[in-house]
Amino acid sequence: MRLLNELTIPIISAPMAGGPSTPELAAAVSRAGGLGMLAGALLDLDAFGAKVDSLREVRFGVNLFLPDDPSGADVDAYADRIAPWLEKYDAPRGELTRRDDYYPEKFRWLVQNPVPLVSSTFGTFDAAEVAALHDVGTEVWCTVTSVSEAEEAEASGVDALIVQGPEAGGHRGSFDGSAPEEPLAELLEAVRRASALPRIAAGGLMDGNDVAPLLKSGAAHAAQLGTAFLNTAEAGTRPVHREQLTATEETAVTRAFSGRPARGIVNEFMRDHSGDAPLAYPDLHYLTAPMRAKAGAAGDPSALSMWAGTGHRRARAASATDLMAEWATQLQ
Ligand SMILES: Cc1cc2nc3c(=O)[nH]c(=O)nc-3n(C[C@H](O)[C@H](O)[C@H](O)COP(=O)(O)O)c2cc1C
Fold first, then answer.
1. 2-331 adopts what CATH topology?
2. 15 Cα: distance to centroid of ligand 1 (angstroms)
3. Rounded (10°) CA dihedral 242, 248, 252, 255
């Protein structure tokens, strides 16, 4: 709660792995009175450390994906099914490099080089990890998508819960790779009954007017917004992803790109493979990486993962600094 009490605007910019959440975006949101998050996932240790160290002058947090054990799914069979797509982009089957995304090294680094806040996604830090972070003065939050996950996180000793509804852009933060469908408002109430920890609402919230009723009713203490920042000047979002935010009507949850459910703008690859993609993260993430890179470089939206929440058509092309100022007035 300590960090939440310091915010003059109770809005947090979501960690957005894969490029969108830059240190510049996090710094702009923190300087405006909110809290900027850095995505620690999908980076090697050197890139991770350099990004984190670039933010030391402001209040900020770092997010980590917790590693998944192999699911046992037949990844080769999926690779065969998507072969025509790989051929179309002249892309090889990508190889899985580090299943654990350098998690042990990143965690150790954060203990040795403490930051104000660390949040977890795809699971909760265990009690010993929470204690290690607390010992160096770091606050700990956990992303949850159900009451049982909230209870597990609370038992580990975390300080606050990021309650993520199915409206959210990007990966569902569920511990077991499921995609619970209870809408955000209902989930917040259910978590409120089960846990006394502060709640940070996430999913489909696009401005101060969306957040204000949640704060007023006590449903949430703050909100974490991702999609609303995707088209800001400070974000690292690819041009084709920015264009599709307003050009396309529909989002859906799919495992087709990464092997874990994630909400993104519907495109041809998703239409072809959402039905047959297994639960196998990060195997599918690495498998499809060369295809996504080639599609992205060509500005072709049909085979690219373009994560976005249900509010994507309201994402504004503006600076994060200006948006934060506007939302602050809506929250008064
Ligand atoms: C492009 C993108 C990437 C994301 N990457 C991460 C991530 O690295 N870690 C994480 O905890 N959540 C990630 N999320 C989910 C956000 O934390 C948050 O739950 C979500 O953005 C809230 O819904 P909204 O997008 O409708 O605001 C991502 C979301 C998007 C849109």
1. TIM Barrel (3.20.20)
2. 6
3. -60
Neighbours of 16 (CB within 10 A): 25
Q: Kindly report, residue by residue over 178-237, the tens digit of the pLDDT.
A: 999 999 999 999 999 999 999 999 999 999 999 999 999 999 999 999 999 999 999 999
Summarize the chain as % helix, strand, coil (round to 5).
40, 15, 45
CA nearest 145: which of 172, 115, 110, 106? 172
How far, in Å, CA of 57 to CA of 211, rounded? 27
pLDDT, tens only, 232-287: 999 999 999 999 999 998 999 999 999 999 999 999 999 999 999 999 999 999 99
**pTM of structure:** 0.98
Residue 26 carries which side chain, given as an amino acid letter?
A
Distance of alpha carbon 192 from its chain centroid, rounded? 22
What's the per-residue H, E or C state across 122-145?
Answer: CCCCCHHHHHHHHHCCCEEEEEEC
Task: Using the structure block, give the residue that is written with the tokens 């699911």.
Answer: 71
280 CA → ligand 1 middle, Å: 19
Going by alpha carbons, the residue nearest to atom 15 of ligand 1 is 170
